[in-house]
Give the backbone structure.
Amino acid sequence: MTLSLPPLPPARRGRGVTAVLGPTNTGKTTLAIERMLAHPSGLIGLPLRLLAREVYGKLVARAGEGAVALVTGEEKIKPPGARYWVATVEAMPLDLDVSFLAIDEIQIAGDLERGHVFTDRILNRRGRDETMLLGAGTMRGLIERLIPGANIVTRPRFSNLMFAGEKKITRLPRRSAIVAFSADEVYAIAELIRRQRGGAAVVLGALSPRTRNAQVEIYQSGDVDYLIATDAIGMGLNLDVEHVAFAADRKFDGYQFRRLNPVEFAQIAGRAGRSNRDGTFGTTGRCPPLEDDLVQALESHSFEGVKVLQWRNTHLDFSSVESLRDSLDQIPGEPGLTRSPIAQDQRVLELVLRDAEVRARARGRAAVSRLWDACLMPDYRNISPASHADLVSTLFGYLTGRSGRIPSDWIAAQVAFADRTDGDIDTLSTRIAHIRTWTFAANRPDWVDDPVHWQAETRRVEDILSDALHERLTQRFVDRRTSVLMRRLRENTMLEAEITKTGDVTVEGQHVGRLEGFRFVPDPQAGDGEAGKALRAAAAKALAGEIDSRAEKLSASGDEAFILSNDGTIRWHGEAVAKLVGG
């Protein structure tokens, strides 16, 4: 059931609150982790499931698996003795009483789509002893206004961020992240990088944590030197990036296609240069040039403050559908807050209420609360608003039926639909979106019989789909041979070469061509780009000793080892090594 808590009075909001503000790469999240571990219990809310997983892993390494819980819309790991809780902001448990509480990336409270949830957590969720709000310096004015008495700490960036101008995609330096704002753009750039530079990893917000981590690993390990990503990398994901290149400057924000605002540019560009290592940013591809004043703001981390936070009433009235609508439509009575646009959950509510059967079932506090619970399910499949509303109506019908649960045979059929790993990248991505719906349902213990079973089953399916998707992405966007050879060449170590009796040459287990006598013939599939250069360089380095050895054997051979062919070719043990020509 939906938990609705009354808001905190403004006079109580600032007690024990510290706002840690600053640009990217200031160690804000790390500071929050340290502070949380200094308390007997804690909860941190993060903007992305991917980031929640990352922070969960860090806490487990420090406090032990049994002490840390993870709560997102699609995943719940709750050991009986958990003291530290990691959650996405939307999934933060509202009934937890903890000593320490932190909310990360608080500037998202100004976002039209998700902002109202962040605003609620900023204004109303507190730790008993300490509360920490983490975010951009642009939030300072509103924190001072809305949370009087809060202690505000500003942290400087650990390294410099400098503008590097425009570069062609194929001329971008190693350890670059190239940012685009649609899967099609990301894939097209990754294809180009594969042809020219041996390969790239891809990171999109829709990837499961398992796929994302596997993709990030091939970048972090040096198997590939380029990362192609959406703005998902802007939300605190710490990567070994030296240069960020914007391949586009416009994105769809849930309501319209628009240009990034300066703070969004900064959030993404700031991924370049971690810890004390300086970073650079610039443009590439079809991205228009950045204006001088924007560049100056990005380099100096100086931006106009956030003017208003998005707000929606969270103290909802479930006594009737009309009361629920009225409570959702309330207007904030406080300066600095504005009523957020109608969000997806409220749009779904209006769509499903067109159904007479839904209206008939939605009578009484329990049924209205159940209906709102169903409307809160995210539209992972993203087929159409009508399709999602139909699904919500179906779920509400089951949840208000005789058993009050989704039938096991029905959810089993839905899970089985996604439980296969054939198909291309788009097919697997669609199946992952599908299974995320049922993962969400399985993690609502009052929605299904035997929730533990369905949580394990949906997790199993998501894991095998994630592994298959990583494999397909790697097959499509990484030339494994080129990436292996380039990495070994950079390490400047002795390359392991093998020459078969038929002359085939493999270097570090990768076929690179043939050695015919003293002449190396590269694999024709390597081409003339960066891949071809890497292959020829690796072969030259690996075969140097073999060529010298063959030369010594040739000079020590007797006349019987040589044959002069009719066309003037001189063969040594059957291999052409020279040719007589007129002079």
